[in-house]
Amino acid sequence: MKALSGQGRAPLSQEAIDWYMKHGIPGGGDIKMAPVPSVVDLCVTTLQRYGTKTLEEVVAPTLALLDAGEEEWHPRLAVTLRRMVEEEQITSGSREEKLQAASDRFYGRNKLRNDIADELEAYYIEKGGFLRREDLAAHTTLIEDPVTVEYRGYTVCKCGPWTQGPYLCQALRLLEGFDLKGMGHFSADYVHVLAEAIKLAMADRDEYYADPVFEDVPMSALLSDAYTDIRRPLIDMQTASLEARPGDPYDMKPLTEAGVYRPDIGGTTTCVVADRWGNVVAATPSANVFRDAPIGGSTGVSYGNRLRSLNTTPGHPNCIQPGKRPRVTLTPTLVLKEGRPILAISVAGGDRQDQATLNLILDFVEFDMQPEAAVTAPRFATAHHQDSFDPNSDRAQTFIHAGSLAISDSVNPSVQQELADRGHQVTAEASPIATPVMLYIDPDSSMLSAAGDPAAGRHAAGLDENGV
Fold first, then answer.
1. Cα gap 369→377, rounded to integer Å
2. Helix 95-107 crosses helix 74-90 at what angle (to 10 degrees)?
3. Strands 333-337 and 154-158
């Protein structure tokens, strides 16, 4: 079980970082918000480590789409991919070496042909961005151990604290101490205790999570028995918290000395796949590309806004630094039973992603729901947290809505009223709360079951050995 970090980094230039610290991290399509493009190296690294096919084989369907496409950037991206395939074809050596050569041509690490990287750099300069060829050449896909917790006999696996994922693990640890099944699915007690656990876990997310290459994130302490035991009593079953309450995992205190405050203000897709050989992947790809932005210059390679998931708060773990990964919301999930994969989950929805994932995991573990039932069951989410896409240096000003609770309008009105009586700011939503897909592998028969929430435009499909 490994986590492959397909997240680009901030520019290496200290001059660029100084500019961000002075002016902020812009949005609105400004190319300065873009990290290093990372998906190419992610795909190549995945092929090298786990695949059997060539780049030429795996990009053939993409090229067919691009060749038939109507967007003006489609033919330009097709040219870029064909140049990578060309590099693979003319390079001698093993399949892995050929794949590396294709990636090197894209990222400017090739001794003879760096045309793609040169064109990307020219595009960044033309648009006023900070990324340069040295940023491209320095990029690598990190392969990391996942963050894991045990819950009711299952092992829940998340990417590290360069994502928001570990807070799901923290929430599950807190919830171990409650009889969720006895409360009943989507009873007022059930929704209340989940929401309060999420609030505590997300407060720690906002306080401590960051790129662990740069910051010593106290992950072991945050997931420890001792810390969980001192945080769990903060959940009041009768009253919704309206405070942001990070804890202190260093001195093992339930609350920080100065971190408790009462706030006064208020492009992703999904992919889970399993194959007949037992390989399972959960991925949450996202670029957050502004559709009206010029895409890629001569390369057709787009850019995203993920540097806005860093901030400019001096001393904060997630403050922008040269080459640092932003702490992103993208957070796929794998769940194991006795060491073998049993669930794969991916959710689109920004800060709601792991809140929906928590709903799905508990639907399965506590209430025996299969994917088809879980993805269409009611969900809830809170905005009682900082906005992961607001880089404001005053982090308190990014807090979205204290005590908020969005809940599916199909939930019994009496439950909604009881939650409101406990202090939740309840809003019933007719539209889907986040957009999940879920895959289950029966450990006895190896039968696969998959589903996406149709109301959210998600779907599931099966392919035979011929790809049909």
1. 9
2. 140
3. antiparallel
